[in-house]
Design goal:
Blueprint: E1 2-7, H1 14-27, E2 32-36, H2 42-46, H3 51-57, E3 62-65, E4 68-72, H4 75-96, H5 101-107, H6 113-128, E5 133-137, H7 141-144, H8 146-179, H9 187-200, H10 203-208, E6 213-219, H11 223-238, E7 243-251, H12 258-279, E8 284-288, H13 297-308, E9 323-328, E10 331-337, E11 347-351, E12 354-359, E13 362-367, H14 370-373, E14 377-383, E15 386-392
Parallel strand pairs: 1-5, 1-6, 2-4, 2-5, 6-7, 7-8
Antiparallel strand pairs: 3-4, 9-10, 10-15, 11-12, 12-13, 14-15
Bound molecules: adenosine-5'-triphosphate (ATP) and magnesium ion.
């Protein structure tokens, strides 16, 4: 089984690439599903499906061709299916605190419910081995990165807070009834949370298992998009997810109008090269800009061939973690795989939130998490084929 996330900034081509990859994978005989959280329902547009077909389908998988299903999650449906008691309690709570019922109901859709619903589906399909490939069309990075932290946060919540809360609620309920108007959650609420948690069990291992799951970051050859891709790379890595490819979409073809586009082509080349050096050893897969929007099966399959050539779209294009942050004795530590490690002097430059490592013609840029960027001493040591970099001082460091 294979799980691939397509993530990136808004509008870079995530949905299109997820659809193209799905079609190609299905064509090669893999039972494939593409799941999207996009409320704009662009998957159905890309496959040229009539809108009401999806509306009738209410967020369930819809078969679009041999071996291929698409599923566009519908938060209202998900609330009914997964969040019943929890949503009910929250909206009563907000309603009693003086909010209008409709506003209270709306507010009770907590940020993260959609993402958790997505994780529930992934876990459910994976447990049942329902598909050979599950492709996820993510929301734009800014919003969607939250979902990767959900399993860890929930586990913490359940272990540390939930048990305590449950006991407290039992003790406080009769008392609170007399003193306050605010309702305390009943047993159904806690049961619902517990049930949800059980259904999520194992999803984190699934997402961080490099044999199963990888992330493909979709980007464009532009400064700001590239910076966001670096940030996404950092966050996915911090959560232990493996990135197996950077898809560089919308590169202007050589043949495009020389006079008008020459500046664009020059700057695109520069950012393309930069991306290769930033993300090395993770491969950058270039895709040119098509003459028109990429809609319908033929164009999507054509796009898939541009991205993957003859390669299996479900292959792992890279295995491993190019870098890893850890905390040892209160200090942050960064371990970087150095393919050409030698005794030569390693040169480190920290400029703001970026670290540049130079070693014998090899140059690597790594975006630093905020706490790490605050450090004022950076030292490095070679350990086999790994470079171990220690950050000390600054706001959070000890040393
Ligand atoms: N290589 C390409 N050539 C031509 N058009 C493209 C290419 N890649 C994507 N597009 C077009 O760009 C538009 C946006 O693509 P898409 O919807 O896949 O982006 P997205 O990252 O999913 O956006 P959002 O963040 O809004 O979900 C679509 O109209 C799509 O057809
Ligand atoms: Mg999209």
């Amino acid at each position: 089984m294979r799980i691939i996330f397509f993530a990136g900034k808004g509008g870079v081509g995530k949905t299109t690439l997820a659809a193209a990859t799905g079609l190609q994978a299905a064509k090669k005989g893999n039972k494939t599903i593409i799941i999207s959280l996009d409320i704009a329902h662009s998957l159905s547009d890309i496959f040229d499906l009539p809108k009401d077909l999806l509306d009738l389908n209410r967020g369930k998988p819809l078969k679009v061709s041999d071996n291929l299903w698409i599923q566009e999650l519908d938060i209202q449906e998900e609330i009914e299916r997964n969040w019943g008691e929890i949503h009910k309690y929250l909206s009563t709570l907000f309603n009693t605190t003086g909010l209008d019922e409709i506003v209270a109901e709306e507010l009770a859709i907590l940020p993260g419910m959609e993402e958790v619903s997505l994780l529930l589906y992934i876990n459910h399909y994976a447990r049942r081995r329902a598909y050979d490939a599950i492709l996820l069309d993510c929301a734009p990075t800014g919003e969607s990165l939250r979902f990767i932290s959900i399993p860890t946060t929930l586990e913490w919540y359940i272990k540390k807070i939930f048990k305590l809360e449950k006991t407290l609620a039992k003790i406080a309920r009769p008392l609170a009834k007399r003193l306050y108007d605010v309702p305390l959650p009943g047993d159904e609420y806690f049961d619902a949370i517990e049930k949800l948690f059980n259904r999520l069990h194992g999803v984190e291992e699934l997402l961080t298992n490099p044999e199963v799951t990888s992330v493909r970051l979709v980007t464009n050859p532009e400064k700001i998009v590239l910076k966001e891709t670096q940030r996404a790379f950092l966050y996915f890595s911090l959560f232990g997810m493996h990135i197996d490819g950077i898809i560089m979409n919308r590169i202007l073809p050589e043949a495009s109008d020389e006079n008008f586009f020459s500046q664009w082509k020059k700057s695109q080349k520069l950012y393309w090269k930069q991306a290769e050096s930033y993300f090395e050893p993770v491969p950058v897969l270039p895709v040119t800009l098509f003459k028109n929007e990429v809609l319908g099966t033929d164009k999507l399959l054509h796009l898939a061939t541009k991205v993957y050539g003859r390669k299996d779209p479900l292959a792992h294009f890279y295995r491993g973690m190019p870098f890893r942050f850890t905390k040892e004795d209160g200090n942050y530590m960064l371990t970087v795989k150095m393919p050409f490690a030698s005794k030569e002097r390693v040169q480190l430059n920290k400029t703001g939130d970026e670290l540049i490592i130079r070693l014998a013609g090899f140059k690597k840029h790594i975006l630093l998490p905020r706490q790490v960027a605050a450090a004022d001493s950076v030292t490095a040591k070679l350990d086999g084929d790994r470079l171990r970099i220690q950050f000390k001082g600054g706001e959070n460091g000890k040393g």
